[in-house]
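Objective 1b: paired records.
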Amino acid sequence: MAKMWAGRTAGNVDKIADDFNSSIHFDCKMYRQDIKGSMAHAAMLAAKNIITKEEADTLIDGLDGILSDIENGKLDFDMDAEDIHMFVEQVLTERLGDVGKKLHTARSRNDQVALDIRMYLRDEAEDMIRMLKKLISSITDKAEEYKATIMPGYTHLQRAQPITFGHHLMAYAMMLLRDIDRISDCKARMNFSPIGCCALAGTTYDTDRRFEAEKLGFDGICLNSLDGVSDRDFCLELLSSLSILMMHLSRFSEEIILWSSWEFKFVELSDSYTTGSSIMPQKKNPDMAELVRGKTGRVYGDLMALLTTLKGLPLAYNKDMQEDKESIFDALETVKMCLQVFDGMISTMKAIPENMKKAAQGGFINATDLADYLVKKGLPFRSAYKISGSIVAHCIAEKTVLEELPLEVYKSFSELFEADLYDEISLETCVRKRISEGGTSVESVEAQIKFVKEKI
């Protein structure tokens, strides 16, 4: 394919160099945004009498035909083209002749690619938010199912206090809500049009950038032409948001891996989201959760790659910036795949309440409630804390638990203990009385579920 930019040079690029320079094998993803942007540009050129309305209509009809042919499989991308912009313009010119050559008036590939990537990421952000809402819905459904199922809550991976499985699940729902907020904020900041910045300095034509921006659904225009073509903050911001999202999925994956192990056996994963061993017939491996955990590093790498690419670039456009798309495209595809798999894994996961309850009974996780019992009887907390700790040490030595220790033994530590303490330190009471907003009581978990469902 002849180079559209031939003139100053002959346009005869070495084949290896041409392949190295080409980006169509990945930026062809943006064909729809490139064509829609060109349609708006043609309409603006006619509105400002830079081309005639008849010429604009011809261009728009020609672009619409190219879009239709690509989507219907009648037109294949030419991988010898330098990029998606050159491919579309070349096909348009072949079909329309000299009229097709007028489309690129008052713009550059620099502002054109900046426009395409913003439009593409805007669409992808919407899709990402939709997938996140679906996953959050699956989590809240599971939390509703297990809102009263008692399990040990952990700090330092040591059993700490009794909570419900529903409460634990809702912690991840809250994290993913923040991910939606971050992606939404990023989408809002990227929604400013760079088209009309041209190569870097604007144009001598009397264009209407705001007309074009409005036609393409932008909230405004980039107000500095140098910044408009060189800004990739929105790519970094989206990559950062995706990295945080993957960190949340990775933490969740780690807990699912632990919970599904024989050492915990808190949950059973569906056969559809596990694999077996080639040599050990008893194995049921949580491979999907492990892969999500592993792919988190891949998304982190995409963020670091682009940060490194941009860190030393002078204004305005540099060819280095072509590297933005492979990083952000890879991260988007990876995260969307992880979200899709994760949603199915969570919705088909089953808890094993008896194992959760048994684990909760064996870790003295009601010791804080024992101390609170003495505080309610008038003892200072620090004194109550010391007595409770001494009782736990006694139970460990005697290989018993707080619920089974006789009342006379309790009274040997403090005369404040009465028979009502057994109800106070039961796991059900410990959970039921955690009534503070955001806590683990069933009523609190129900309020969290209601809030999240309304939010999404």
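Objective 1b, second protein:
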Amino acid sequence: MPLSDPRKAEVFRFVRADYADGEARLVYAFDDDLELVERIVFPQAPALLPERAAAFTTALKLLHLIAGVSYYKAGVPRQIRIDHGALDAQTAELLDALYLHGLGEFAYQNGLDLSECIHFPRAGTAAPAPAPVLGLPTRSLLPVGGGKDSLVSAELLKQHGENTTAVWVGNSPLIAACVAATGLPGLNITRQLAPELFEYNKAGAWNGHIPVTAINSAILVVAALLYGYDTVVFSNERSASSATLEYDGRAVNHQWSKGWEFEQMLAAWVRAQVAADLNYCSLLRPLSELAVTRLFARELRYDAVFSSCNRNFRILGPRPVDRWCGQCPKCHFVFLALAPFVPKPRLLNIFGRNLLDDESQQQGFDALLEFREHKPFECVGEGRESRAALQALSQRPEWREDALVARFRSVVLPQLDATELALEPLLQPAGPHAVPPRLAGILDAYR
């Protein structure tokens, strides 16, 4: 049992990280309290090649530092200490940004100002020696989360002929079923949080959203070195970079660790400090959420297995009987985003109901539209995407009389600028990306 209240701690400590026999142990503590030990298991891990040992140690160190966000937020002490020494400037800047922005929603929900607390200790401005080229095998690790985005990436990578392994962190049967449906080889990494963290939470410690994509990213950088992959390919689209709201003069983005800023920072850090030939990127970065759903609509094989409903992925608490709860922002958005591209009977079969013909769902859809509400704290598209999707549905006979589509047409639409509601411009690729040259041909499939 925890010995004290982490909110009273003066220091959060990164104690040590070690690896042996396929298991990484990440150790943390508040002040001199008991050690909190997280375990990450890499199944059937091969022996670490000697030429990758130094890079692996560096990547494991970053995983330790990034995964610590799960524990730091329980107390938010004003001092951060790294027991094995201070950091170089690039690493400290990456972590300062991740903890400050990745915990932005957590800070907003709890009324906290983290800018006074988050300062990772740094030894100076000198950068470490450039990372070597390791000659990693030419193949990709694709994280699969059970939703449409990673399944679109799976299909694109298969069509391109890329040697790909689908990987997931955790023990979700839903994700396992999605991986099986891709037909790709699968790799299931398990993560066991320190049990004391749940006791802290029960006792009233600070709690809330963390940048879990950043943690999974760090896990997969370690996995790439261990198993031998030169590319870690996420499936984050450009909408992920859009803020949810402004708080205390700072943009708050629920999806910050899925956004372009974090992708750039982590990719640069990996190339500079781990391996010059290890790529970290998002295959879908140039696309909007609507463009991704249009690609997903082309493939029928996942209708019976995929789900973006986060209630399926709770660590604790009940899960929906069906794959879609039909009540949360993710259910609302995926239903709405698919509707312009999927025949109505198919969509109703996927969800088991018509969410747009249910007046009790009005407030949830208004939030997606950013109509008298701010965008939900969830991984959903921009308000303009939801408005364009509803505008398209309002012109289609099979949808226009459904309760919330009819309300959009009569109540919401008159208050909008009709020139900004076109669907087609949102379907075009735009903006920067970091897709490596080997996979550049995939970009042609976006059009």
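The CA atoms of residues 198 and 316 lie 9 Å apart. The first helix runs from residue 53 to 67.
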